[in-house]
Amino acid sequence: MIRTTRSDHVLFVIVTLLYWSTLYVYVPILSPFMKSGGYADDLIGIVLGSYGFVQMLVRFPLGLLSDKMHKRKPFLMLGMITGTLSCLLFMIPGSWLWPLAGRMMSGVCASAWVAFTVLYAAYFAAADATKAMSNISFMTVSGQLIGMVLSGWLADTYGWNAAFSAGIIFGIAGLGLAFAVKEPKEGVARSPISLSHLREVIRTTSLRQVSTLSILAHCVLFITMFGFTPLKATSLGASDGQLTLIVIAFMIPHGLASLVTGRWLVPKFGTWNVIGTAYLLSGSFTVAIAFAPNLGLLALTQVLNGFAQGMYLPILLGLAIQPFESSKRATAMGFYQAIYSIGMFAGPFLAGFINAQFGRDYGFILGGLFALTALVLTLVWKRSASRMSKPARRQLSQ
């Protein structure tokens, strides 16, 4: 545990909020911004999907390097630098390659997140690890919400580049403050990501199942609010400012769901039942986006979909590391995060091509099919887990 003051905690919170704000300040306007530049939906899908593609390649190696160095601050700074560069690249006119480079750079930025969590956890005693992760999860949602709420207002009031300029300001401010973030000279050690443990971790059935469900979950998320939902809103006549209301309609229920699910829903109804119900609801409300005739009903789909998606994502995160002893949890989490990045890439990438061929609403139907697939897998694996647990219960009763 690192000896810290209240000021150290406040500084870390500010840097974390700036980090997520830099990453998300342009997310709601990205697809409308590219559409206004005359780009087709398949190109938009490639740009949106590149964020996840880079994370597939970079997240795990960055985690290995950070653990080997025992240093976290350099990776905080890397996140701020790449987040700033991402926003800068979007402002360069003339070719779709610049937005592609910008979104790929944001994938590097997002890959630095593990360093934030490891350093912040070291500010707390081991017994308070849950409190630390709860705090940083709240910072994540808050930073994303700040950035996304500002996005539409800035674009509506000052033009597209205002959101990217704000991201640059956030990134530079975060980089400057990151120099003052407290980390001891010897760094922060943890049970490291280990290539030697990777084979054993991958062989764990429950991790493979949870990772598959998470891939599908991120397909849905990055087709909807982090993908093509803003384009649906603008096609219904939404101004850039009204996009802010659509974002709020999704993000606030999304954040609240994570609090309600762990405390009340899972203890009362069971883990697999909650996951299955959430996928059923998410799939239904994702398809409903395609048929929303006006902004009011579109906003309603976002409230319900935001809550549904907020139900299963934190449960899957907990299940990913649950079966592993502490020495292997970093490896399991590194694998899990790299794998679910497939969904960040595949969802918008495939939806972009579907949209280009058949029309934009078909991308949301594809998202619904991803959620339906996850529901079927959940029901199958729930039954399998139930059958496996019966012999164990009989043995305990004898």
TrEMBL record:
Keyword Transport: yes
This protein's record includes keyword Membrane: yes
Domain called Major facilitator superfamily (MFS) profile: residue spans: 1-386
Subcellular location: Cell membrane
GO MF annotations in UniProt: transmembrane transporter activity
Transmembrane segments annotated in the record for this chain: 12-31, 43-62, 74-98, 104-124, 136-154, 160-181, 213-231, 243-266, 278-300, 306-324, 336-356, 362-381
Signal peptide start and end residues: none
SUPFAM superfamilies xrefs: MFS general substrate transporter
Domain of life: Bacteria
Name used for this protein in its record: MFS transporter
Origin species: Paenibacillus lycopersici
